[in-house]
Design goal:
Helix content is 36%, strand content 31%. 35% of the residues are buried. It has helices spanning 7-14, 20-32, 65-78, 87-94, 132-142, 148-160, 200-214, 228-234; strands spanning 3-4, 38-43, 46-51, 54-59, 82-86, 101-109, 127-128, 165-169, 172-180, 183-191, 218-223, 236-246. The longest helix has 15 residues, at 200-214. Helix 1 runs antiparallel to helix 2 (20-32), helix 5 (132-142) packs across helix 6 and helix 7 packs across helix 8. Strands 1-2-3-4-5-12-6-11-10-9-8-7 form a 12-stranded mixed beta sheet, with helices on both faces. The two termini are 27 Å apart. It has 8 helices and 12 strands. By secondary structure, the protein is α+β, with helices and mostly antiparallel strands.
C-alpha cells in the first residue's frame, strides 16, 4: 500500500541516491520538510514526493502489476497537476488510461564532447546568486508561463538554505536545483530574447559542466526533444527519458 511516510524514513531512502527523481524529491525535502504543502509517500519500490500539486515518482526494481494498479489508483484519488516519472513507469500508466503525457530527455555533461578551442568563460566571469529580480526577466523569456511569486519564493528559499544556486552569464541564466551525492541537477536554462544567438547559454552550461566535473560530480539536466540539439552542442549526451503525466493541465 502507498502511504505517507515520515521525514526520517524519506531521508534514509534518499540518502545515497543521485538519479534525477531522487534529486528533485531530495531538494524539496531539504527545503520544505516542515511545511504542509510538501509530503512524501512510499510503497513497495515506489517513492513519491509531493510539492503542492506536482508529484515526482521514483521507482526501483521490478514493479509488479498489482503495485502499478495501486499507483494508478493513488494518482486518481490524490489529485495532482503533474507527475514526473521514468519512461517505463509512464508507459505502464498510459496503458492504464493516463493519456495526457509529455516526454523529456535526461542529459549528462561530458567535457570530452566540448570541441577544442571553444570559448568558455571562467567562473569569475559568471554571477552567482545575483538579485533575483534581475534574473526573473531572463527566466520569463525562456519560460513564458512561469509565475514570479511561485518562482521567487521557491528559489529564494532554496538559496537561503544552501540548496539551490542561480548562475548568470551575460544574457543567460541556469539554476542548480540540487547538488548532492555526486550529481548537480541543472534547471531553468534561459536566455533573454535580445541576447539569443550569441551563445551565452551554451557557454554558461559548458563552464558549469566543467566546474562540477572538476569536483568529481556529474551535471545533469532534463530537456524537451526539440532542445536536444542545443544540449548536445553544449557538451551533453542523452542517458535516459522521463515522462510527465498531467491531470489538471
Amino acid at each position: 500500500m502507498i502511504t505517507q511516510i515520515d521525514i526520517k524514513t524519506a531521508q534514509r531512502l534518499l540518502s545515497d541516491a543521485n538519479d534525477i527523481f531522487s534529486l528533485k524529491i531530495s531538494s524539496n525535502l531539504m527545503a520544505y520538510s516542515d511545511y504542509d504543502f510538501f509530503s512524501v509517500y512510499g510503497g513497495r519500490g515506489i517513492l513519491i514526493g509531493r510539492y503542492y500539486n506536482d508529484l515526482v515518482i521514483r521507482t526501483k526494481g521490478v514493479i509488479s502489476e498489482d503495485i502499478m494498479e495501486e499507483l494508478s489508483l493513488f494518482l486518481k484519488v490524490c489529485g495532482f497537476s503533474s507527475a514526473l516519472c521514468g519512461i517505463e513507469t509512464g508507459k505502464r500508466l498510459m496503458a492504464m488510461g493516463w493519456s495526457d503525457v509529455e516526454e523529456s530527455l535526461i542529459y549528462k555533461f561530458s567535457s570530452q564532447l566540448v570541441p577544442e578551442n571553444e570559448e568558455i568563460p571562467q567562473m569569475e566571469e559568471i554571477e552567482v546568486n545575483p538579485k533575483l529580480d534581475e534574473v526573473f526577466p531572463i527566466v520569463k523569456d525562456g519560460f513564458p508561463k512561469i509565475k514570479y511569486d511561485d518562482w521567487y519564493t521557491d528559489i529564494n528559499h532554496k538559496i537561503r538554505h544552501g540548496i539551490a544556486a542561480v548562475y548568470v552569464y551575460n544574457g543567460a541564466t541556469a539554476t542548480v536545483m540540487a547538488d548532492m551525492n555526486g550529481t548537480a541537477f541543472i534547471s531553468l536554462v534561459a536566455t533573454k530574447n535580445e541576447a539569443r544567438g550569441q551563445g551565452d547559454a551554451k557557454k554558461l552550461l559548458r563552464r558549469l559542466g566543467i566546474y562540477f566535473e572538476g569536483q568529481g560530480k556529474e551535471a545533469c539536466i532534463l530537456c524537451r526533444e526539440e532542445l536536444s540539439s542545443f544540449y548536445r552542442k553544449a557538451g551533453f549526451y542523452e542517458c535516459g527519458k522521463t515522462m510527465t503525466i498531467f491531470q489538471n493541465k
